[in-house]
């Protein structure tokens, strides 16, 4: 973790003391092993990880974090999708909303910057020219980041800034570092992490008689027509303020001073607002508490008032929440692995984030206000990424109520959707239509099949069927008519065909479990549609045209947006048949041919290939691309071809090259926890290749010992005997002392708890779990 200043202010020391007192109630050995203490939020903030280091509560609505640069435009903002980039020399300010590891930028709402001194610039300035604006240089050595807390010294602003967050609030504490100085806070409503010409459609700000500042902003960015309101309260009275519009291209439509019928002290509206708040000369800290709402200012105020206490109280409460959330998994491993896995768990617990106000109100995909009754509405659904491992991980490390709320939120979003389908990529209730598939289906099916209840199963199934039969969506009409998506009618057709087929299988699984044999039969048949895109001559999944022929010319290494595949090529997508890998193995010519093709993928010489035009293609091992999701299950597929030791070798290769306990420690976008969830599962020795199958494919562990406290209160202890770099292979596996001779574990076995023991060895065990009967689930050979 970045170094901390030796001259910490007394408020920080009091906070540390409070945490120590809280921790003192636990036994010393457990405290020493606390997963909370091993988390480093700086991991992933450099390179292409796109994570943020700021303060957030578990699944918090507010992600209070520094933004190092918001001056990019459109896709140039890709590198700053999380606002903060470790390599940047300056901090522009601190805003209330961020994505963790997204492959697209947006949010960065309500940017604030503290200033000590007489001059308060209203423009951010040039990062390469210190002093030209309100941004400030900073030093990583003066940064502190841990779950729920962030601090930094702003060199050019003369302020030490500390941030913490509750579920729906963010709290900042600003202290001048050079004695008593005039203190100010700048609020920039023009700033955004996805700058689009005319992005801010309208904004407003008002100072109320009680000193609370409120306002709203309507933006047009990744999500069209998004509304967000805010409320801000200061710990000291204001001595002055200024609300300024910097619009120059249109007539000013706002107002200064109280409007007609308003009880505000001052208010203004427009498309380019910036405000200054003055606190007088002081050497004492100033606390600023903020809240947001996608509904209205009243909702933001209610959220602001819903969590009481000063900075230290909120920080301690959030630290306690993080201890509870993280310490369900205790890890014993070499320090770098310990930090990587602990941080991966932390990143897996940031989304789907709370998106409903304290009174239950939220804004839905129809841009109307609704109310959640009996659950907390959540959003930030990066479903193309997270259905794979993130959501299955939540069913093991979170109470069932978390997944229940997620499923109810998905169903509610479908009910409010103008198109009547489940979310695809949604945040703050608004749909972006980014990526492909209807991957809310496997999330819902996996939850139900694992016994999670508390939602309307009939409504869930109806939502899944509606999404899978909505003809206008991304070639679905053609898919239903032909059994594949034709490339001359719809881009990325090869990927869409195989992803639709998997989603169809999950619908069939849920329908069968609910006794709906008619629906199950329909979608089980559709799940076989992957075969229509498989080319036996080349051994690849390919795009067909509407006349039934495969599109030519064909280059399995080609990656282009809008081509035959989605963020990938034939090498990655030809393995996406998670519902029936056994049939794919047969189609490829059997075990030996499959192993050879997998090896060819990993060993492919890419030295003469240029993928620099494709932003999401990172973390290459041959044609295996760990930095993007279509490859995530591939290393485990050797198990389906009778060669589990090859899976173990590939996992050693992947973990060793794709994860580090450093700011650039993620090879690609974390994608709202998916990259991290992959590591958590893999470190424990198993992975959900096929969500909905109720099985986990065994790989190899990367921790010496781990204790997982399950949602039912039982514990699963994973022990790895003789684990080190010289012993990368699994010799044998036992569960509660009984030998495991198959290459998978069942969900009910995990939930029963007990002891999962791996005995590691230097040489591969080429006989363990190799029989066809010992291989993981495939629909064509389902047990």
UniProtKB/TrEMBL annotation:
GO terms for molecular function: carbohydrate binding; peptide-N4-(N-acetyl-beta-glucosaminyl)asparagine amidase activity. InterPro entries: 6-hairpin_glycosidase_sf (IPR008928), GH-type_carb-bd (IPR014718), GH92_a_mannosidase_put (IPR005887), GH92_N (IPR041371), Glyco_hydro_92 (IPR012939), PNGase (IPR050883). Residues 39-293 form the Glycosyl hydrolase family 92 N-terminal domain. GO terms for biological process: carbohydrate metabolic process; glycoprotein catabolic process. Keywords: Signal. Residues 300-761 form the Glycosyl hydrolase family domain. It holds the Pfam family Glyco_hydro_92. GO terms for cellular component: cytosol. It comes from Diploscapter pachys. It comes from the Eukaryota. Residues 1-32 form the signal peptide. This is Glycosyl hydrolase family 92 domain-containing protein.
């Amino acid at each position: 973790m970045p170094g901390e200043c030796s001259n910490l202010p007394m408020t920080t020391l009091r906070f540390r003391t409070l945490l120590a007192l809280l921790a003192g109630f636990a036994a010393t050995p457990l405290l020493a092993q606390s997963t909370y203490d091993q988390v480093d939020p700086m991991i992933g903030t450099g390179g292409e990880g796109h994570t943020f280091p700021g303060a957030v509560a578990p699944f918090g609505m507010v992600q209070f974090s520094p933004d190092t640069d918001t001056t990019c435009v459109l896709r140039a903002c890709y590198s700053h999708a999380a606002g903060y980039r470790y390599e940047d020399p300056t901090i522009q300010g601190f805003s209330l909303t961020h994505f963790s590891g997204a492959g697209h930028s947006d949010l960065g709402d309500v940017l604030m910057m503290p200033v000590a001194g007489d001059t308060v610039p209203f423009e951010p300035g040039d990062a390469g020219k210190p002093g030209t604006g309100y941004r400030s240089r900073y030093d990583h050595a003066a940064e502190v980041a841990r779950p729920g807390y962030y601090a930094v010294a702003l060199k050019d602003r003369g302020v030490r800034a500390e941030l913490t967050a509750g579920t729906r609030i963010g709290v900042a504490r600003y202290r001048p570092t050079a004695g008593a100085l005039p203190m100010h806070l700048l609020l920039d409503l023009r700033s955004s992490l996805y700058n689009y010409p005319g992005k801010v459609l309208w904004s407003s700000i008002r100072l109320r008689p009680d000193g609370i500042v409120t306002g709203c902003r309507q933006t047009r960015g990744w999500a069209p027509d998004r509304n967000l309101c805010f409320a801000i309260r200061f710990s000291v009275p204001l001595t002055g303020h200024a609300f300024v519009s910097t619009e120059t291209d249109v007539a000013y439509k706002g107002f200064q001073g109280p409007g007609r019928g308003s009880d505000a002290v001052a208010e203004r509206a427009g498309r380019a607002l910036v405000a200054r708040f003055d606190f007088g000369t002081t050497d004492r800290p100033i606390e600023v508490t903020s809240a947001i709402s996608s509904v209205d200012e009243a909702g933001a105020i209610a959220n602001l008032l819903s969590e009481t206490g000063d900075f230290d109280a909120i920080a301690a409460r959030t630290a306690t929440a993080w201890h509870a959330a993280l310490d369900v998994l205790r890890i014993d491993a070499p320090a770098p692995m310990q930090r990587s896995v602990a941080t991966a768990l932390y990143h897996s617990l940031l989304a789907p984030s709370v998106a409903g106000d304290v009174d239950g109100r939220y804004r839905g995909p129809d841009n109307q206000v609704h109310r959640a009754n009996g659950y907390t509405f959540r959003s930030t659904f990066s479903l193309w990424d997270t259905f794979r491992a993130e959501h299955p991980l939540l069913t093991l490390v979170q109470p069932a109520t978390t997944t229940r709320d997620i499923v109810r939120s998905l169903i509610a979003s479908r009910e409010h959707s103008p198109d009547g389908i489940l979310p695809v990529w949604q945040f703050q209730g608004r749909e972006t239509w980014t990526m492909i598939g209807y991957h809310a289906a496997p999330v819902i099916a996996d939850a139900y099949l694992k016994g999670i209840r508390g939602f309307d199963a009939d409504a869930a199934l109806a939502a899944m069927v509606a999404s899978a039969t909505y003809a206008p969506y991304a070639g679905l009409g053609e898919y239903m008519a032909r059994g594949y998506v034709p490339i001359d009618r719809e881009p990325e057709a090869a990927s869409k065909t195989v992803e639709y087929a998997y989603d169809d299988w999950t619908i069939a699984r849920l329908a069968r479990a609910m006794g709906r044999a008619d629906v199950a039969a329909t979608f089980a048949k559709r799940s076989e549609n992957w075969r229509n895109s498989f080319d036996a001559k080349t051994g690849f999944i390919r795009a067909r045209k509407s006349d039934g022929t495969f599109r030519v010319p064909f280059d399995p290494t080609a990656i282009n947006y809008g081509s035959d595949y989605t963020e990938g090529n034939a090498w990655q997508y030809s393995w996406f048949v998670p519902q029936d890998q056994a049939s794919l193995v047969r189609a490829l010519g059997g075990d030996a041919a499959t192993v050879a093709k997998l090896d060819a993928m990993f060993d492919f010489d890419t030295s003469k290939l240029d993928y620099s035009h494709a932003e999401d293609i990172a973390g290459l091992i041959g044609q295996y691309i760990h930095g993007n999701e279509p490859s995530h299950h591939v290393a485990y597929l050797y198990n389906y071809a009778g060669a589990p030791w090859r899976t173990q070798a590939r996992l050693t290769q992947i973990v060793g090259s794709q994860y580090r306990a450093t700011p650039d420690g993620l090879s690609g976008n974390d994608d709202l926890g998916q990259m991290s969830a992959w590591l958590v599962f893999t470190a424990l020795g198993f992975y959900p290749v096929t969500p909905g199958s109720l099985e986990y494919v065994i790989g190899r562990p990367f921790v010496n010992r781990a204790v997982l406290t399950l949602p039912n209160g039982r514990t699963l202890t994973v022990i790895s005997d003789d684990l080190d770099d010289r012993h990368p292979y699994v010799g044998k596996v036992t569960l509660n002392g009984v030998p495991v001779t198959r290459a998978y574990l069942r969900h009910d076995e995990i939930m029963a708890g007990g002891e999962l023991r791996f005995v590691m060895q230097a040489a591969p065990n080429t006989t363990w779990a190799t029989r066809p009967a010992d291989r993981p689930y495939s629909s064509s050979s389902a047990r």
